[in-house]
Amino acid sequence: MAMTNFRVFVLALLLLLGSSLLHVARCQSDAEVDFAEAAEEGGELGIVSEDVQEFGDENFSPAPGVDTVCVFPKNSGKVVPAGEETELLVGFKNDGDSDVNVIAIKASVHLPFDHRLFVQNLTAQGFNNASIPTSTQATFPYIFAVSKFLQAGNFDLVGTIIYEIDQQPFQNIFYNGTIEVVEAGGFLSVESVFLVTLGIALLVLLGLWIRGRIQQLSKKTKRTPKVEVGTGTTDASMDEWLQGTAYTQSQASKSKKKK
């Protein structure tokens, strides 16, 4: 039974490792490919302003002819350490009829199963001199940090870029997807925690199996101890002590009758 459980655990480990490799292979999304092509074509980079304005919760509609894309540089798994800065890049393409003035980028963190359950409002990052002429592409960095007290796990990040066309505000949601929050300074993810737990379980199971085998072998080698029963002997000192008593006299009379 123990050997069967051991084989099941090994099979589960192999399947998990295979799924992890497939997940890594799928990390390059179509959006990242499009952004890489846009970066090769070049474009203006917005300059971060020193005075970051506070933007309310007002929502605007996207402008026609404006497309955005988001990339996490060297972080295809979208892993965000709690309390530490994380950078993403927003690709902005203006195919409209007018110039675009990019104002700011903001983002918020929500629970994945219901965006109405708000977790954290991230800092807005403003830009100046970020005018994008028509038929032009640009990239904008956005650096954010989730709370260091945020529990590790999967959350949804909603990122918005706000811009103006002819002094009329618009906005595009450049990212609305999952991020994985991990403890600061650690590289543990849900899969790595599962692998560590599985490894410990395998070691425990292997130890129990070895212990059971040792106990079986020890039972086979055990032998029942032999009990030796010897014949009774008469102690000479006892005879000397009984000399002169009724016991010796009766013994003497018996020996005479036999004669």
TrEMBL record:
The chain crosses the membrane at residues 192-210. Keywords: Calcium, Endoplasmic reticulum, Membrane, Signal, Transmembrane, Transmembrane helix. Residues 1-27 form the signal peptide. It is a single-pass type I membrane protein. The keyword Endoplasmic reticulum applies. It comes from the Eukaryota. It is found in: Endoplasmic reticulum membrane. Its main location: endoplasmic reticulum. GO terms for cellular component: endoplasmic reticulum membrane. TRAP proteins are part of a complex whose function is to bind calcium to the ER membrane and thereby regulate the retention of ER resident proteins. May be involved in the recycling of the translocation apparatus after completion of the translocation process or may function as a membrane-bound chaperone facilitating folding of translocated proteins. Shows a remarkable charge distribution with the N-terminus being highly negatively charged, and the cytoplasmic C-terminus positively charged. Belongs to the TRAP-alpha family. Heterotetramer of TRAP-alpha, TRAP-beta, TRAP-delta and TRAP-gamma. This is Translocon-associated protein subunit alpha.
